[in-house]
Amino acid sequence: xxxDLLTAALxxxxxxxxxxxxxxxxxxxxxxxxxxxxxxxxxxIAALPDGAPVVALPTRIAGSAITFRLAPEGAWLLGxxxxxxxxxxxxxxxxxxxxxxxxxxxAASLLGALGVFGLGDGASFLIAWEIMxxxxxxxxxxxxxxxPGRPVLFMLGLLEVGAVALMLAILLxxxxxxxxxxxxxxxxxxxxxxxxxxVIALFLIVGFGAKLGLLPFYEWFPSAYGAGSGASGALMSxxxxxxxxxxxxRALLQWVPAHAGGIGIILVIAAVLSAVLTALxxxxxxxxxxLLSFSSAQNAAIAVAMLGVALVFRGHAMPELASxxxxxxxxxxxxxxxxxxxxxxxxxxxxxxxxxxxxxHTGLLRRSSWLFGLGALFxxxxxxxxxxxxxxxxxxYVFETVFQGFRLDTLxxxxxxxxxxxxxxxxxxxxxxxxxxxxAIGLLGRSAQNFAAVRSEYGxxxxxxxxxxxxxxxxxxxxxxxxxxxxxxxxxTLAAHQxxxxxLLVPLTAKFAFISPTLLVVVMPLLAIVPITLVLANRRFxxxxxxxxxxxxxxxxxxxxxxxxxxxxxxxxFYSFVYRPTAETARESSGQQQYFIHRLVFSHDVAxxxxxxxxxxxxxxxxxxxxxxxxxxxGRLNFYLALIGILLIVILALALY
Length: 657
Hints:
By secondary structure, the protein is mainly alpha-helical.
């Protein structure tokens, strides 16, 4: 059943891509892509809790048979990733041009992601991986919301670094197993020493980490996401990000499981540092897409940190705690896909209304539908880890899992767990302030301009995703049972069943800690009766509205209000050693009169960490090599004939000797 539905989704997406290529009937193309996502969600539901059976495809690559199987954890991540992707495809890009190219790129991303989730051999997997990357680049380039070229080239350059690392890891594993089939990679580990296994694991971390935004690769996120629309961000931060995590999880848990403890420590350190840095940089963004892109890298890093924790626990022969950490990563990415998709589409709604993606006072919540406001609020609450949303549940589980580090028997592992908990706590605190800034300034704040209400279709879509986040949290006891098949297959434990006790959520045992979003949804409205009653009982007392003191001048709400810059300036000052902030003021005079200022231009920015010291020297080196090899394009026929002659001599020498 699941494989039949996946085949149907494949053909529907392919048909949507063909329709988009014609440049006509784009409404039909959007409908096909959206319908394919619905079919894919149905396939994911049908595949849970045990996954889909293996299917052998009627073709071969490099002499190796191509197989496809949707594992249960893949079905989980695919289903939740497709929910915002389908809605983004239904709405389409808000850009005025390039919609056909965007739809084709979206179809390529979906097809590539499906291949990453299910293909079972290295050659076809790498092809699907590249198609997924190509689709994201095509979406951004087609929209032309910013000057094209450099952000996408920077993204593709770093992603190709990851692709090369993946190719090297797969080639090493296939050389040892004498097969490109993933099923043979686990047995190939016995042919390697510890050092080679660690090198392969590092290749895999770099390869998948380039897509997940682990340091230093997160620096392509704000420029690339910021060059596209929220619809592109919903696809890239949902199904594409989930596919990359699935690939990393499968690779580290199944292909190179030996020495898992050491690899896990490396992964935890890298992921926690990535989470802290991306949270800090997200807080300083004044563009919806840049902020949400850094937040996507931050949440991906939290999930990767839990994967590292799972490796550490498994290295210490603690399968139940390892399965707990791994399950938490899956829960976190499910809630993140829904909430982040909702806010990316919220950003598109803001763009339609204001003409830009800047985080500024718009007063849109006063004019837009209540469904839009609640959906955006629930999504922001989840990403800020506020109860009773899904993000609160998953991050509560994160800390409860890390707190189990005292059970480890080595000082290094216990110390890493303790520092990881501290780093993740800092990340969560900054994320809370970040989404207060997004919601309060970007949607709630009053504006001197009378913007129109957000379009009704965005209200419906954002509302649906926001309530889906709440439904994920409230129904968590049921959702956890759907993951038991994945946990049993991976670790041989019943951890998913042990993570809830009726409506209570527990970290394997209720004696350690517990929460219950299911009961909170009932209790919180009941508690709200008390303040509501007090307000209604005191209606006879008039409420006095007093203007804010503004230095003796007439009050101007637009000038006196808190901006995105002032809100984040305190943290920018405190962490100036990380941000290295810059602020420039330029005075433009009117004509020849230098003493009369016509306009004052203020610009501010924060400096990237890796750009000046890692990426820029590499770029300069490539350009220098290009200058040296420019002679190959001289256009002189004799020079080209000489090169051909030298090449023939080399070929003859190799053939004869």
